[in-house]
Amino acid sequence: MCMSRSLSEQRLAKQQQTPANGQATPSAVQPTPLQEQNSSDAPPKAQEDEPEEDENALFDEGDAQEGVSQLRMREFALIYIAYMGFLIARKNYGFWLPSVLSELGKGKREAGTLGSTFEMTYGAASLFNGILIDMASPKHLLVGGLLLSGLVNVCIGATTSLPIMVVLWGANGVIQSFGWPSITNVFLAWFPDPASRGAWYSLLSTCQNVGAALVPLLVSSSMAQWGWKAALYSPAAASCIVAGTLGALLYGSPEAARNSGDEMRPSQSRNSLSKMLGEQVVMNPALWLMAVNYFGVSMLRTCLSDWSNVFLQEEKSLSLPVAARCLFLMELGGFAGSLVAGSVSDKLFQGRRGPVVCICTFMLAPTLLVLLQIESAIIVQGCYLLLGFSAFPVHVLLGLFSREVVPAGVSSSAGGFVKCIAQIGGAFAGYPLGALQQSAGWRGVISVLALVAVLSALSALPLWRTTAQNRIRARNGTVSDFKTMNKKSKEAKGKLA
């Protein structure tokens, strides 16, 4: 994907925007009803604020394309590492908690208070911090978040009061909620073409798997050398090192790269912003359909993660090592499915995420019904592999999809809205499903989950033909327009040569 355009490309784009009769050229891809409604509801100010000029034309015509690609890849690598810095400052929780509770003489109920506080503050902040994330510089949010998260870990290591620890860990939940949305904003700025960024976004999401795998290695080795407090201090040091690296090397957007690090964020009045949030987020039918789908898939994923050990031992009479292998295969299938789903949505469906979300969600239902009927340990493990392959892509793609159907100014708010509904679905995997298990047994639980999967797939079906609402930055067209423009530009260059 080229980030700068030749003069012929610019003239061609202007011709497509303003033809001779003064009317807009129709899009090569017809908008869906959801898109038409979003476009008609969009505030006029938001449409006027979109620039006509090429915002991504950051480099002179003489600059080598290799340099542009290298800069984009450097930004990608930096945000990949950035989220691992966030992960290490929160995934260390299970390593320092037992020693802290032992020293304080507290039990598992107090341990649950710490974990629940983090989850509640993280979920609540995800819903309300989208406005700040969309208005502030993502680079500043990432650097500040990593430094503050490291400071929280240091403070927990320095205190012996459990209430203070609860407050600090809850504050860490708020800080951590700024991480992934800010990283997504950097990603979308550098990968504006919907027809190619799905695969890259799926690759970016693997930083969560890699980071989660590296945390035990770093924390356990540190604890072996310096004791249990190293489980707090070593992640704090690592997050600060990552913050310093981002501060020195990360631009955050092509505009910041052009201005040598000074990024001008768009200013919006409070009234126009609140109106856009109401019309483009709260009243957006596409986001509600995604939220319903995400609710069901999140409940299913959380149930499989939290209850599989009990289910497999009680219902399938499998040993604990076999149950652990099933969970490992589910994670492995999720890793592979996430990578495949992004590429499929790009290449097979031309940047549309709805078909992949719908198909993957529907695949969960028959797999659960097969799991309910069979007894073979090998087939059970195969079912868990397929469940991970089907469920995890939905989690990955909806994070991108929810930001693609709204204007750029409220993308983080849209992602936070859908994510908040998903966390409510995850909460339903606790007490409600536990009560259902006691009354209807595991067959009742799995049957309900299969029904939830079908209903979730049906909620995603209207999104089948939904494409990115945002115009491709600096190209003012659909995916097909973008491809046509590049093709005509190459033909024009060939004739001149």
From TrEMBL:
It is a multi-pass membrane protein. This is Major facilitator superfamily (MFS) profile domain-containing protein. The chain crosses the membrane at residues 76-93, 113-133, 145-168, 174-191, 198-219, 231-251, 281-302, 322-342, 354-372, 378-401, 413-433, 445-464. Residues 70-468 form the Major facilitator superfamily (MFS) profile domain. It is found in: Endomembrane system. One of its GO terms (biological process) is phosphate ion transmembrane transport. GO terms for molecular function: glucose 6-phosphate:phosphate antiporter activity. Residues 1-41 have a biased composition (Polar residues). Belongs to the major facilitator superfamily. Organophosphate:Pi antiporter (OPA) (TC 2.A.1.4) family. Keywords: Membrane, Transmembrane, Transmembrane helix. GO terms for cellular component: endomembrane system; membrane. Pfam families: MFS_1 (PF07690). Residues 49-64 have a biased composition (Acidic residues). Residues 1-64 are annotated as: Disordered. It comes from the Eukaryota. InterPro entries: MFS (IPR011701), MFS_dom (IPR020846), MFS_trans_sf (IPR036259), OPA_Antiporter (IPR051337), Sugar_P_transporter (IPR000849). It comes from Prymnesium parvum (Toxic golden alga).
